Amino acid sequence: MHEFKRILVGLDLLPRGKALTPGSQKALDQAIWLAKRSGGQLTLIHSSWSDTYVDPISGGAHVVHEGLSANGVSTLAESEAYAQGQGVAVDSQLVDERLWVAMIQAVLDGRGDCVVVGKRNQEEGSGRRLGSVATKLLRKCPCPVWVVRPEHDLVHRLVLAATDLTPVGDQAVRAAAYVASSGECELHVVHAYQIPLELQMESANMTEDEYTERVDKIRSAGHSRIEASLDGVELGSEPHIHVRRNNPSIAIREAVEHLHPDLLVMGTLSRSGIPGLLVGNTAERLLDRVDCSILAIKTTDFVSPIRPAD
Questions:
Q1: Rounded to two decimals, what is the model's pTM?
Q2: pLDDT of residue 307
């Protein structure tokens, strides 16, 4: 299980800098919750970089680098004081690099083991379920990334873990259990299996009972593996384990739509040694298709395409 001790929080400001965006405020609240639970500390990171693209007569585009206003300075100081007032150790950092790049570089420099950001800046209504900063961090950051839905009230009533029964899937299950064990919260775990090609080829020579028995063994093995991943984890109630024959992305989406979790925790995949080869087909299909908050756990061999700061 990841320790979540050095928590990096990405903050964006409303125009004129008079307050945090709703997404950033919720991310800060979630990070404070996590730091209090884990005994960790926060680093608040805000970027003064603003990508403002203008279509001039030439047909080109400009990138404008803007500094931080006096209002912005005051808002960030108030955010730090807000976290300190809740008994959390906190510092802040103003960077002039893009926010997602600066946060990944902080992780690569050993200054963070978990990243928390808003899923998007505004509450529902803008059309997008996942903002560009959250998307880039989910795809390129080597540590766990928690993207927080602005509408979430921070009371976790149901946490859903998705696992493919790999080691990173086991980590996702245990991370979900860690969150669920904090209160009266249900833990659900979903695993999707498909019939192996070998069994498909052999099925023509089997009776219906023999085929059913083989499929039941696959289902039972998945259930047992999930139970084993929860050995030693203290939960307030028995976990609900769902092992289904289906495409993984479809099974997870159906579970989200049926259960309405506050948080979906899933392991992500990459191709070892190839920088930034995303997060695996299942996660990629789900990133912008689920309404809840997401906690993505990366494989230990994930290679970020971002290089450490000089």
A1: 0.88
A2: 87
